[in-house]
Amino acid sequence: MELLVNDQSVDLANLPRKGKPVIQFSFIEKNKPVVKIPFTEIDLAAKWLTYLDNLRKNI
Description:
With 59 residues, the protein is of the alpha+beta class. The chain has one helix spanning 42-57, and strands at 2-5, 8-9, 21-25, 35-38.
C-alpha cells in the first residue's frame, strides 16, 4: 500500500498541499492489477493509509 499524489509516491511525514491523492494497493502476485482508491483530500487519504496499514500489521 502506498499514497500517491499526482501519480507520485509521497512521504506521509511530508505531505504536499495540493494534488490528486490515491491509495494504491499492489498485490504480491504480479499477474494481478493494482487497485487505486481515489480521495478528495490528501490528509484524509494519509489517515486512511495509516489506519489500514496498522490493521494489516495487527493481523
